[in-house]
Amino acid sequence: MGRAPCCDKANVKRGPWSPVEDAILRSYMEAQGGAAGNWIALPKKAGLRRCGKSCRLRWLNYLRPNIRHGNFTEEEDNIIIQLYNQIGSRWSVIASQLSGRTDNDVKNYWNTKLKKRLSLPNSNGDTASSSTWMIDYNCQVFQQLPALEARPEMEMLSNLPMPSIDYGPGLMVQAGPSPNIRSIIDLGSASNSWVSNESLSINWSIHSPYSFGVAESSRPTSVSCSQGAAGGHGWTDLGFGSSWNNIINDLPSNYEEVLEISAPNALAVASPKGV
DNA sequence: AAGTACCTCAACCGCAACCCG
DNA sequence: CCGGGTTGCGGTTGAGGTACT
């Protein structure tokens, strides 16, 4: 024997709600002070040919006072993204942090807008939709170069909890902001290596008002790795090698350069030179 | 203008948690 | 404690709208 149906499906109306039905439900709920009591019994009491669950959903997601639809603000975006990274798809919890938003709205907004905006590259290595992150050598994270396209993710990233690991003088690495973002870079160590626990390729360029001792053409501009284990912690050392060391060592003392990094996943950084 | 593809979001479904006798 | 009824939640669907060809 299967589960008992919550209502008599043959005798209830389904599909979009009509204005008349909305008015009946709204009127009933207002008369009850906004408390439905028993949702299963509500349709009969209110005079609606609807399933109780449908009434509940309609009220909570649409008719209830102070509901806001659409036009999510940047601040709301940030909260949703941050909470999603922390607790996953617990939409009701996320919605509870946003005034007037319903879990259904937040869920739809995530699935149709935010997820796409933050989408990772496909398996072909197409990074057209990937994130590009910028850092500077002073750990002032996520500065934006004027010439580059607007990347609202950057603002978001700086607000996310990013576990940092201090490996000692001159070397600090920060993991990415979500379980899906685990790439790590360090710029201050002796080896100056990228480490990552996933297959990826990285391209970068340096934007600097200063000249370097290393010719532009000899600077490394890309590196790739496959997933592997290194140092017993499952990370792959991408190894920039000596040429990268030269770049670091040749930086002026009061540098303000920004390193732009394009990678499949978000990255965080780095330690000031000489620290 | 017509056909098609894509997008959005309200609504539905089923499951798990909760409530209560 | 148990079991049935109810509620809350997250995943999914599909109608309607819009963009594209």
Automatic annotation (TrEMBL):
Gene Ontology CC entries for this record: nucleus
Residues covered by the HTH myb-type domain: 9-63, 64-118
SMART domains membership: SANT
Record's subcellular location: Nucleus
Keywords: DNA-binding, Nucleus, Repeat, Transcription, Transcription regulation
Domain Myb-like: 9-63, 64-114
InterPro entries: Homeodomain-like_sf, Myb_dom, SANT/Myb
Any one Gene Ontology molecular-function term assigned to this protein's record: DNA binding
Name this protein carries in UniProt: Uncharacterized protein
